[in-house]
Description:
Blueprint: E1 27-31, E2 38-42, E3 55-59, E4 61-63, E5 67-72, E6 78-87, E7 91-97, E8 107-110, E9 127-134, E10 139-146, H1 150-157, E11 183-186, H2 198-206, E12 210-216, H3 220-223, E13 239-243, H4 245-256, E14 261-264, H5 266-274, E15 285-289, E16 304-308, H6 315-324, H7 326-338, E17 349-352
Helix pairs in contact: 6-7
Amino acid sequence: MQVDFFDYHLPESLIAQTPLPDRTASRLLTLEKRTGEIGHHKFEQLERYLEAGDVLVLNDTRVIPARLFGVKADTGAKAEVLLLKPLEGDRWEALVRPAKRLKTGTVLHFGGGAPSEADRGAEPPLLVATVESEGDMGSRVLRFSYEGIFNELLDRLGHMPLPPYIKEQLPERERYQTVYAKHQGSAAAPTAGLHFTQDYLNRLEQKGIQLAYVTLHVGLGTFRPVGAETVEQHEMHEEYYEVSAETANLVNAVKRKGGRVVAVGTTSARTLETAAGEDGTLQAGSGWTGIFIYPGYRFRIVGALLTNFHLPKSTLLMLISALAGRENVLAAYREAVEREYRFFSFGDAMFIH
């Protein structure tokens, strides 16, 4: 299956650069996966498409300030690091820029004075990273040394890891977190959840819609571009997930009673499908998932999906095409472009049912 089959035209002006002041003020495109019927609504009208007995499954990962700006210890040249996955012994898998100049053995300084100022009483760096090994597409394994607590230093020095297509500054860090974010570890937000306020979640619960939580720490697997010519040639990087016994029991009870499992975001959908047993029940557990969902996949758990609009030729676009059909999805995207929906992380929402 050609990757080009998942391409579409998107004017750059439709890429949302800033979040709306009110989380629930976005638009909502609905897509009926069997008929391809498209509807246009406000996000707050989502509850019309949810029924008592359904369960919303949300990803409660919390984004860490994973983008670090530093300098090379030998030259003072600027360097940028995006932390993706913690490894043993103060080591991290990361993306770096400029990758061509950050070879194995390169030492980076974060915080403190520049190397050229060291002899003039400049502050020593708060974090030091050494490139241990090199991977493809700018990935590296970094070993950090520091004094104190790493997460506190990261909170002090790090920046929220906004996608490269967002050029505007984020007014406040929490706007790139879901209101239910709990477990630290993501390099990007599960953006479908950004539309919810606590008041709106409470409103859904009062209607009889249940809430369940899974954790998937978003890393390279979710947003790495597809470089292969065919879908089947692409390999996903693994990301850490957790499904609690409480969530598994709740989801399985809903399915037994005929309710729908509604995944909030592709990360929740991938977690649910990773933890699905052959019999269609959800299994509690944790581990690493590299699941890649594209047309031809049979969903075992997910019955409906709330999501944002995704990049052309991305694995996320392939996932929603597996649920609703490629032609239906691309037709909906064409209509969204015509009606000037806001796209990507801070954009509008889409509900596939």
